[in-house]
Design goal:
Elements lengths: L1 H14 L2 H15 L4 H40 L5 E2 L1 H9 L4 H21 L4 E3 L2 H16 L5 H28 L9 E2 L4 H14 L21 H20 L1 H5 L7 H40 L5 E4 L9 H24 L10 H42 L11 E2 L3 H17 L3
Parallel strand pairs: 1-5, 2-4, 3-4
């Protein structure tokens, strides 16, 4: 009983809270480096504050993008499932399978550490909530196969640990091979396939010498080259056009009494402001976390590479973040229209919040490898194709198959397609 209480504490209060986890890693790393007490305190506090600033930026971005989801759904005139990984994880964690999810996270993380220690791939995923998201999805599909709780925990732990390790290694491979990115850290996220595909498509279809930041404008429009100002103006135009398209009544339903046109304009400004805050927080966090993690790595896992969260790469191409988001969203809308036309039994509605993260991430990698043309092509293709995997996989997710929610990642989409085909081939029901 006491052991389970300790495990629950580690999962709910440490590993699932990125701020606590990052602060703890920084503290331990600086102690391993034998830094003076004042430097340990300052570094740990700055890491936590950097993460809190990052969260503040995320909050502004969410406030700006949330209304668009409802507007897009109304414009498309259809109801369907939403790709929302955090909400799906919340359902699993609070269900009768919460214990299986918690154990899969913990045992999977331990397996990741062992693999990083004994193999040439030194990648360690430390993005707590994303570790939980992946484990929750794996547990959901295993419970749908009517396995025993013990079998679910064992298989989910192995699949989770392998993913934490390999997904981090995949992102590091594409980051270290491009001088526009970095080799100092990697990413852990269930979008590693999206990173690989965006890099490949960008390289094949694009021109790395013509990047998103190099879009030519007249001298009188040079002010648009300021990444934050340019994004604020473009986002304000996009939000206003969508607001006008969906109509005054729909906008006023979420504007909390603010004039509907002004609400649309300032939502675009809020998007750019949120991204600016987020990038500032990321830089503060990384300034303390990466050296501290290297201190741990020297002692426990020589050469270890930390797998961090999405926003840590946004600083490398802020313009590609915005362009990737827009074209990923357009790809998602196109996928929904095709599903409606083909009368898919499960129609995926674009979750603009999901399109932002997926499009921003793949946009940065596509821009690094293939410039702005690569960014536009890659993010649209990924935004279009990924929802079909979610649609096929949704009925196979057991406890989530009646929730209207699906985990929102490219790796989940590919995993869903593989699972769907295996069930078809082996007639597993």
């Amino acid at each position: 009983m006491l052991t389970m209480s300790v495990i629950n504490f580690l999962i709910t209060q440490v590993m699932s809270d990125a701020g606590v986890l990052f602060g703890l890693i920084t503290l331990v790393g600086l102690l391993f480096l034998r830094r003076p007490v004042e430097e340990v305190i300052m570094g740990t506090v700055k890491a936590v504050i950097g993460f809190l600033i990052l969260l503040a930026g995320v909050g502004l971005l969410q406030e700006a993008t949330n209304p668009i989801s409802a507007w897009v759904a109304k414009l498309l005139g259809v109801k369907g499932i939403l790709p929302q990984g955090l909400m799906a994880m919340g359902i699993m964690m609070s269900s009768k399978y919460g214990g299986e999810v918690a154990l899969a996270i913990l045992l999977g993380f331990i397996l990741n550490l062992i693999l990083a220690r004994v193999t040439p791939l030194k990648s360690v995923g430390i993005t707590g909530h994303l570790l939980a998201n992946w484990a929750a999805w794996v547990v959901a599909i295993l419970t749908a196969l009517h396995m025993s709780p013990t079998a679910v925990v064992i298989i989910a732990s192995i699949l989770s640990g392998l993913h934490y390790w390999l997904a981090t290694a995949i992102t590091h491979y594409f980051m270290k091979r491009n001088e526009r990115l970095t080799s100092e850290w990697a990413l852990y996220l269930p979008d590693s396939i999206g990173v690989a595909v965006a890099s490949w498509i960008g390289k094949i279809a694009g021109n790395p010498e013509k990047r998103c930041a190099d879009i030519k404008v007249s001298k009188r429009m040079e002010w648009l080259r300021d990444s934050i100002v340019g994004m604020a103006v473009l986002a304000a135009i996009l939000w206003t056009v969508l607001g006008l398209a969906v109509g005054r009544e729909a906008v006023e339903a979420v504007s909390n009494g603010k004039n509907w046109v002004l609400f649309s304009i300032f939502s675009g400004f809020k998007f750019a402001g949120g991204l600016a805050v987020l990038i500032y927080g990321v830089r503060m966090l990384l300034g303390e976390l990466v050296p501290a993690f290297n201190g741990i790595a020297k002692t426990l896992i020589p050469g270890a590479i930390a797998g961090l969260d999405y926003p840590t790469v946004f600083q490398f191409a802020p313009q590609a973040v915005f362009i990737g988001f827009i074209f990923n969203l357009l790809g998602g809308i196109a996928a929904t229209l095709v599903m409606i036309a083909l009368k898919f039994p499960v129609v995926v509605i674009p979750s603009v919040w999901t399109n932002f993260w997926m499009g921003a991430l793949t946009g940065v990698f596509a821009d690094a490898y293939g410039g702005r043309r690569g960014t536009i092509i890659a993010t649209f293709i990924i935004g279009f194709l990924v929802p079909f995997g979610w649609s096929l996989g949704y009925p196979l997710t057991g406890p989530l198959s009646s929730s209207g929610l699906i985990s929102d990642y490219t790796d989940v989409s590919i995993g869903s397609i593989i699972l769907y085909l295996l069930r078809k081939v082996f007639f597993v029901h």
